[in-house]
Write a structure and sequence with these properties.
The complex is a heterodimer of chains A (329) and B (642). Chain A has 329 residues and is of the alpha+beta class. Chain A has 15 helices and 5 strands. Classes of the chains: A alpha+beta (329), B alpha/beta (642). At the A-B interface, helix 1, helix 2, helix 4, helix 8 and helix 9 of A face helix 20, helix 21 and helix 23 of B. Chain A: Keywords: Auxin signaling pathway, Nucleus, Repressor, Transcription, Transcription regulation.
């Protein structure tokens, strides 16, 4: 029978639901009638007891991280015939990423659900293989789909917005839950910012306010977008040039310090300004004494002060030499 | 009062249409389908029409003039589409009077045709990418380019005043072309668009002298800095609505202040996140007439004096009805908003990570609230408060806050939605993200609120059954579609079998848009939907186990729909070919980012997007999109002429 005729025959029995199910069982959408028929009987109409047994599997205690295939599942697959073994071959364990090792197993089990496979975009070749061998794969898909879907334990499947938490074994399904990427990105920033406030290191932008004596408004800078003091000072210069007197000449590198903090001081001192920051304890320190990484960990606010105001403001780690009220003047 | 005055003075399009239909039918019978020989004397239903003899001679123009006038009262585009199908002369008259043109799929028709058909067009609304593009299911570069449309309109319709684009790729050249070509340009609304930078916005700001609305809603913009704001000329005073909430970089406060000071008509202002709280007061002082306000970040530390000033500025906004923004809202600043609450009809807290107790304080004061967008931090308790206090609520959206699902201490369950459905009699639109759900809850919700028009439930765990009974959610959704007879939009989730879709197919008669993910058992599901659901226009499916049979059986249905999206389903390449050959006016596009080397007919395809079109296969497909060719020998065609 040509596929066309097969489909016609399917159409002709469209009157009764049962018949359609029966027809569809016999000929899956590819017209393959043999290997799937045995398995398809498992799918018939989803009898309640089937569902119950299937969902029991979901509650089985398994070894390994949630979402991974239990050994029992593997043997099931093996018992389903050679075609299924082929399928296993086509979903080799994805390498390297330890934390997603088990999620990769889950991907194998649920490889027919392209949503999972889609997300493993770092190894596209595996998903491609999936589609290259339709005889084996597709048949197995239609059979094991139901079992697979029931086996996926609850609550482990959704993607999280909060990327600062360890991803662990949670497979990320592309586009699920269906939240607009704009919202996801915005919330990710929010989460990271709030993480910062709590002192946890985040990996997102780290905005701190920069105020300057005599400027009418504050600016904000993302400390993570710079990698050293030199970049920060250049950026601040650009922002506040309108308020500084004269050109900001590049005072030659003193050559005595590779980390540029002295350069920063020189630049600003040359205009009679110093850059200070408020740390987590609320104390105002001169910028430049810590390494950059430590600095961005402790800095909460920046302030460009006139040199004369900063007299007595010792560099870290000798805080508390100036009262805060003076700082805010 | 004669029929004439009725004809000319009644402003409701429908009444007029009915009357006109009966008149026209009479005319048809009387004059044997010949409008040329129409004579006023043969119109008994217009006895008191006193027309001069010269008008009697202008028998050709009479129907047009009257028709034109009547059609000018017909607003809805659907009605206009029906009107244009009656006869050639109605088609002509209607097309000459249509001012607002809506094209739901930019590839369904060619821009040239639209430009030529509607000479009086003043407003153009276009939608590009499929809806699932919002969730990263459509790869970048798929299409949806605005340029051909802008180019066509610029050449032929220079009096165009409004352009609204959704999910399209808009480049700076497009924006510059708009600015240069439409001298009366008033409204630009870009929703979920991408491809342009702030330079393009600057071009619009500087050149469109009559600009009224400039709204960038959730666009991805190449943000080159805040200078664009300074491009509004000093003489520009016509702004009514400005929304730049999706931009990242800072704008100069002084520019913004000056713009506000000289925009007395400004009703809607949505700032971006980098506008800090300390400057908000000075902005609000200059725009106390605002009806819609989107604040910037709401988290800076203010000293008591600043707080007092801000409180006062907020309380001066006597006309404010809609509040949004509120990024990083700190609980201690919530009392500042109390003065606004009693008048608020729309509140968007979906970016405010505020916990439930603080939310209750705020929401209990918003008795006039009609639209509430909030995060799941509101919890069931918060929604109970909403049910008690916000009796005018029409739309509720609860978004996930992104907490890990199994570590969540957010107790938002189905009970929250049940309480709101009980307490808010006008509720008609819901988007609800929840971890799990029950059939009982869905049944209660349907019983309480049969007036739903839009019901979108996202049970975040795929294949999650009713957690109390372990049954699929079939019965729950059955209740929803049975009772909510006006349902226009539905999104289903959780564990669903084919039965659920049988119910939907049978009962959801007015359903226009349906979104499905991780559901169903077999082709039956799709068959139920495509053979039922009389009004279905947009169907989008992901990760469901069916494909060919149902698709081919119901191919004719696809031409009555705007589009069908299927991704990660079992649709074979052969079926796509068959479908495309069977239905000449459908574009069957295969989207495959990892195409196999050979494509036998049985090979499944990653994603398909099928839409009806009179424009033929599109010419701008990228390398990962194939339009299935109509002729059987050629497998696929990819005409890539940009």
């Amino acid at each position: 029978m040509s596929p066309e005729e097969e489909l016609q025959s399917n159409v002709s029995v469209a009157s009764s639901t049962r018949n359609i199910v029966g027809v569809l069982k016999e000929h899956n959408y590819l017209g393959l009638s043999d290997c799937s028929s045995v398995g398809s009987s498992n799918l018939s109409g989803l009898a309640d007891d089937d569902k119950a047994t299937i969902s029991l599997k979901a509650t089985e205690l398994t070894l390994g991280l949630p979402g991974s295939q239990s050994p029992a599942r593997d043997t099931e697959l093996n018992s389903l015939g050679p075609a299924k073994l082929d399928e296993k071959l086509f979903f080799p364990l994805l390498p390297s990423k330890d934390e997603i090792c088990s999620s990769s197993q889950k991907n194998i089990a649920s490889g027919n659900k392209r949503g999972f496979a889609d997300t493993m975009d770092k190894v596209p070749v595996y998903t491609e293989k999936n589609w290259m061998f339709p005889e084996a794969v597709v048949a197995t898909q239609s059979v094991i789909k139901k079992e697979v879907t029931q086996n996926i334990p609850k609550g482990k499947l959704s993607t999280t917005n909060n990327s600062s938490s360890p991803p662990a074994a949670k497979a990320q399904i592309v586009g699920w839950p269906p939240v607009r990427s704009y919202r996801k990105n915005t919330l990710a920033t929010t989460c990271k910012n709030s993480d910062e406030v709590d002192g946890k290191p985040g990996s997102g932008p780290l905005f701190v306010k920069v105020s300057m004596d005599g400027a009418p408004y504050l600016r904000k800078v993302d400390l993570r977008s710079y990698t050293n003091y030199g970049e920060l000072s250049a950026a601040l210069e650009k922002m506040f040039t309108t308020f500084t007197l004269g050109q900001c000449g590049t005072s030659g590198a003193t050559g005595k310090d590779v980390r540029n903090e002295t350069k920063l001081k020189d630049l600003l001192n040359g205009k009679d300004y110093v850059l200070t920051y408020e740390d987590k304890d609320g104390d105002w320190m001169l910028v430049g004494d810590f390494s950059w990484e430590i600095f961005i960990g402790v800095c909460k606010k920046l302030k460009i002060m006139k040199g004369c105001d900063a007299i007595g403001l010792a560099a870290a780690p000798a805080p508390r030499t100036m009262e805060k009220s003076k700082m805010r003047a | 009062m004669g029929a004439s005055s009725t004809l000319l003075m009644v402003s409701h399009g429908h009444c007029l249409l009915c009357l006109l239909f009966s008149v026209v039918r009479f005319i048809y019978i009387k004059t044997f389908n010949s409008f040329d020989s129409f004579r006023i004397k043969s119109l008994p239903s217009l006895p008191s029409l006193s027309l001069s003899p010269s008008l009697v001679l202008m028998d050709r123009r009479f129907p047009f003039k009257v028709l034109e006038h009547i059609f000018s009262f017909v607003d809805s585009n659907e009605d206009r589409n029906s009107v244009s199908l009656v006869c050639k002369s109605w088609f002509e008259t209607e097309r000459r009077t249509r001012k607002r043109v809506f094209v739901g799929n930019c590839y369904a028709v060619s821009p040239l045709k639209v430009a030529r058909r509607f000479p009086k067009m003043r407003s153009l609304t276009l939608k590009g990418k499929p809806h699932f593009a919002d969730y990263n299911l459509v790869p970048d570069g798929w299409g949806g380019y605005a340029w051909p449309w802008i180019e066509a309109m610029a050449a032929r319709r220079p009096f165009l005043e409004e352009i609204r684009l959704k999910r399209m790729v808009v480049t700076d050249e497009c924006l510059e072309k708009i600015a240069a070509s439409f001298r009366d340009f008033k409204t630009l609304v870009l929703t979920s668009c991408e491809g342009f930078s702030t330079d393009g916005i600057a071009a619009i700001a500087s050149t469109c002298r009559k600009l009224r609305d400039l709204e960038l809603r959730e666009c991805i913009v190449d943000d080159l800095g805040g200078d664009w704001l300074s491009y509004f000329p000093e003489t520009s005073t016509s702004l009514v609505s400005l929304d730049f909430s999706c931009l990242d970089s800072e704008v100069k406060l002084s520019d913004l202040e000056r713009l506000l000071s000289r925009s007395p008509n400004l009703k809607s202002l949505k700032l971006n996140r980098s506008v800090t709280l300390d400057v908000l007061e000075s902005l609000l002082r200059r725009a106390p007439q605002l009806v819609e306000l989107g604040t910037g970040s709401f988290s800076d530390e203010l000293d008591p004096e600043e707080i007092a000033k801000l409180t006062k500025a907020l309380s001066e906004l006597k006309q404010l009805k809609s509040l949004s923004g509120l990024w990083d809202l700190l609980p201690e600043y919530i009392p500042l908003l109390y003065s606004l609450c009693p008048r608020l009809t729309s509140l968007n807290l979906s970016y405010a990570t505020v916990q439930m107790p603080d939310l209750i304080d705020l929401l209990s004061r918003c008795s006039k609230l009609q639209k509430l967008w909030v995060m799941d931090l509101i919890e069931d308790k918060g929604l109970k408060t909403v049910a008690l206090c916000c009796k005018e609520l029409r739309e509720l959206r609860v978004f996930p806050s992104g907490a890990d699902l199994d570590e969540t201490d957010v107790t938002l369950t189905e009970q929250g939605l049940v309480s709101v459905s009980e307490g808010c009699p006008k509720l008609e639109s819901v988007l609800y993200f929840c971890v799990q759900f029950t059939n009982a809850a869905l049944v209660s919700i349907a019983k309480n609120r049969p007036n739903f028009r839009c019901f979108r439930l996202c049970v975040m765990e795929p294949f999650a059954p009713d957690y109390r009974t372990q049954q699929p959610l079939d019965e729950g959704f059955k209740a929803i579609v049975e009772r909510c007879k006006d349902l226009r939009r539905l999104s289903v989730s959780g564990l669903l079998t084919d039965k659920a879709f049988e119910y939907i197919g049978v009962h959801a008669k007015k359903l226009r848009m349906l979104s499905i993910a991780f559901a169903g058992d077999s082709d039956l599901m799709l068959h139920h939907l495509l053979s039922g659901c009389q009004s279905l226009k947009k169907l989008e499916i992901r990760d469901c186990p069916f494909g060919d049979t149902a698709l081919l059986e119901n191919a004719a249905k696809l031409e009555t729909m705007r589009s069908l999206w299927m991704s990660s389903c079992f649709v074979s390449f052969g079926a796509c070919k068959q479908l495309s050959q069977k239905m000449p006016r459908l574009n069957v596009e295969v989207i495959d980012e990892h195409p196999p080397k050979t494509r036998p007919d049985s090979s499944p395809v990653e994603r398909i997007y099928i839409y009806r079109t009179v424009a033929g296969p599109r010419l701008d497909t990228p390398e990962f999109v194939w339009t299935i060719h109509k002729s059987p020998e050629v497998g696929v065609s990819r005409l890539s002429i940009r």
